[in-house]
Amino acid sequence: MVSCSTVAILSALLGLILLRKYRESRWGYFKCKKSLQGKVFLVTGANSGIGKETVRELARRDACVIMACRSMSSALSAIEDIRRTVQEGTLIPKQLDLASFDSIRAFSNSVIRDFPKINVLINNAGVYVCSKEARVTTDGYELHFGVNHLGHFLLTNLLFDKLCESQPSRVVTVSSLLLQSGKIDLENLNCERETPESLAEMRSNQKYCNSKLANLLFTRELAKRTTTVDVTALSVCPGFSYTNLFRETPRSWYQYILFAPIVYFYMRSANQGAQTVLLCAASDEIGKQHSGQLFRDCKVYKPKLRFPCSSATQSKLWDISTEMVGLRMK
Ligand SMILES: NC(=O)c1ccc[n+]([C@@H]2O[C@H](COP(=O)([O-])OP(=O)(O)OC[C@H]3O[C@@H](n4cnc5c(N)ncnc54)[C@H](OP(=O)(O)O)[C@@H]3O)[C@@H](O)[C@H]2O)c1
Fold this sequence. Notes:
Mean pLDDT: 93
Pfam family, one: adh_short
GO molecular function: oxidoreductase activity
Keywords: Oxidoreductase, Signal
InterPro entries: NAD(P)-bd_dom_sf (IPR036291), SDR_fam (IPR002347)
Number of domains: 1
Bound molecules: NADP nicotinamide-adenine-dinucleotide phosphate
Largest sheet: 8 strands, mixed
Distance between the termini: 79 Å
Strand order of the largest sheet: 3-2-1-4-5-6-7-8
Shape: globular
Protein name: Retinol dehydrogenase 11
CATH class: Alpha Beta
Strand content: 5-15%
Helix content: 40-55%
Order of helices and strands: HEHEHEHEHEHHEHHEEH
CATH superfamily: NAD(P)-binding Rossmann-like Domain
């Protein structure tokens, strides 16, 4: 005989599983299995998390993927892992450190030389560091701003002519809804000036939020500046996903227990996080009419509040970034 308590426990477990399945169904899934043979995709941060799963799914559809990774050994391990499940597609590892303008220039030159076209550039790589000491890139920029925004800004600009030659082409930049807590202070982009709220901001990683807002403003401004060419600029929030992003965030055992329910209901696998990136990169239903939009859960994201920035700030951020990375204004 099955006791009442056993029935109650089993019903509760079933309820939890169904609730999780319901949430997963709301996140959306890129179902299209159409072949991407002949198309070239470039993914930054392709060795880990959302980037690696994006590569896996593109390869499954027979695409050619340039995997831009900081470490070649991590790139080769990622390829080994992908090849355990997917044999299709062409995977080409290449070294790129987004924290160094020299590395970005060398990488871009070799891509321009070796590949006749790039159909889709996926600016995915990102850092999230909670550190008391200011961390900077090789060129002296605050790490989040330097890698997440400036690195991708320079890369996209250097590859822009190639993207134009490959029309129709796309630039997909991975942002985050944490951008809603972001601030763009044009006088203090590099976070050199300490402000009274700096300590509290450090706890919530204000610098990461700012860089993700910069990712969205970059996408919007790119869309504004590319109306005469068939290059589509899109931004994505992949959702809270189980990846290596928070590897430098210290956690104690009780935090694991406290956050377990949140993780169960809200955290996606890296593959689930990659679905909206894939939709923006490969769906035939996405086109120029979507340029400048932010996507989440496999659809256009409609914010409840206006995003915290004006189009004048967006345009100035572009001009200042151009100077910071040492490009000439067009
Ligand atoms: N996970 C989430 O919950 C979440 C939520 C919203 C948005 N996002 C965004 O999703 C994107 C992908 O992150 P993820 O969650 O997949 O994290 P991840 O597993 O840590 O992947 C980040 C990737 O970026 C690479 N990277 C970091 N610094 C780099 C540099 N200087 N040069 C080149 N590559 C560099 C990493 O390379 P190494 O392995 O060599 O460090 C890694 O391949 C990021 O833009 C992140 O902001 C993530």
